[in-house]
Design brief:
alpha+beta, FAD/NAD(P)-binding domain, D-Amino Acid Oxidase, Chain A, domain 2, 2 domains, 9-stranded mixed β-sheet
Length: about 350
């Protein structure tokens, strides 16, 4: 027995859920998820924050354009972001401030005294910083559930434990085979499979784009002192760490990017130890205990920009992948951009051209 849909979306994380909610008023939608529940992988493991410089200047338009939606739905909590630099990084930090200021991002240079006020216990080697006051924490679960609920209300059919093993395009669209023996038919096949995006493409007979899943580690520490709730998201200008407060604890990462196969990835002891050592170089806070550790996969296209659009070599195959570590903070604008392409009615303010899969063909 087979079912017919207008749109079949592979992957029910934040990307797939956002598109399902947007497409549901325009046709019958199947949201296909290989796991027992949506958001099990990257979406459910995010230490998500919204900060306009994260991901670089070519991702910034998507981040900035997402702010209004996140504000409207009460999904942001003020945090602030502080990028730390050593004296020998002064020139690079100044260029960072100039570049993002020119894009309309609020960012200012701070000296040592201002750094100490925001980060008590800061070690002496950190003399400079760039502060972004508009950085916020994102309620990731709330955002994901908002879109899942909207999709369900509008008739989206969520299929869990449904792994795609093959797909072929014919005269009436896509025929999609699932591992449990079911078959679906859909006019358009949307690839929102995250770390599995290239594998889904290959299952559909579409050439992969060279997506690279990279492991990112996060550790949760209980400190032997009060962690101020006002502590900013703190990042190293050299990309070697970030940390932030969360529920009275401290979340920190060595900002690792270890190549991985698509899988249920777990934190490695070496990466956790590296995160702790890098934190000790920044603040002189004693650590009481390591309470929790986890890892997620951040998947990038070869040029580290997301991929949104119809594949120019495969009819009715739409890429919505490669969001790296900025997929949550850019999700509202990315969904608007993709919906405009899928429905052939341009939406939003972000130019889709830099993110087209045609750039790899």
């Amino acid at each position: 027995m087979s079912e017919r849909f207008d749109f079949a979306i592979v992957g029910a994380g934040i990307a797939g859920a956002s598109l399902a909610a947007g497409l549901a008023p325009h046709g019958r939608v199947a949201l296909i998820e290989a796991e027992d529940r949506p958001g099990y992988h990257s979406t459910g493991r995010s230490a998500a924050f919204w900060t306009e410089s994260y991901g670089g200047p070519r991702v910034q338009p998507l981040t900035t354009a997402s702010r209004a939606f996140l504000d409207q739905h009460g999904l942001l909590t003020e945090r602030g972001a502080l990028t730390l630099a050593r004296t020998d990084e002064a020139e690079g930090l100044a260029a960072f401030v100039r570049e993002f200021s020119a894009l309309g991002v609020r960012v200012e240079t701070l000296g040592r005294a201002a750094l100490e006020r925001r980060l008590p216990g800061l070690r002496s080697e950190w003399q400079l910083g760039a502060y972004e006051p508009d950085c916020c924490d994102i309620d990731v679960a709330g955002l994901h559930q908002l879109w899942l609920a909207e999709g369900k209300r509008l008739g989206t059919e969520l299929l869990c434990r449904a792994r795609v093993i093959g797909a072929r395009h014919g005269a009436d669209g896509w025929t999609i085979a699932l591992a449990d023996g079911r078959t679906l038919h859909a006019r358009v096949l949307v690839n929102a499979a995250g770390a599995w995006a290239d594998l889904v493409a290959q299952a559909a007979g579409v050439a992969p784009l060279g997506m690279k899943p990279l492991r990112r580690t996060v550790a949760q520490l209980r400190m032997d002192r009060t962690v101020p709730s006002t502590l900013p998201l703190t990042l190293g200008f050299d990309g070697s760490f970030y940390f932030k407060p969360e529920g009275g604890k401290l979340w920190l990462s060595p900002h690792d990017e270890t190549p991985s196969q698509p899988c249920d990835v777990a934190a490695e002891e070496l990466d956790v130890a590296l995160a702790i050592e890098r934190f000790k170089v920044v603040l002189n806070w004693p650590i009481a205990a390591l309470e929790h550790k986890w890892a997620g996969l951040r998947t990038f296209a070869p040029d580290r920009l997301p991929v949104y659009g119809f594949d120019p070599t495969a009819r009715d195959f739409f890429w919505f992948a490669g969001q790296g570590g900025f997929g949550i903070q850019t999700a509202p604008a990315a969904a608007e951009l993709a919906l405009g392409l899928l429905l052939d009615e341009p939406r939003g303010t972000v130019d889709p051209e830099p993110y087209s899969p045609a750039r790899f063909r």
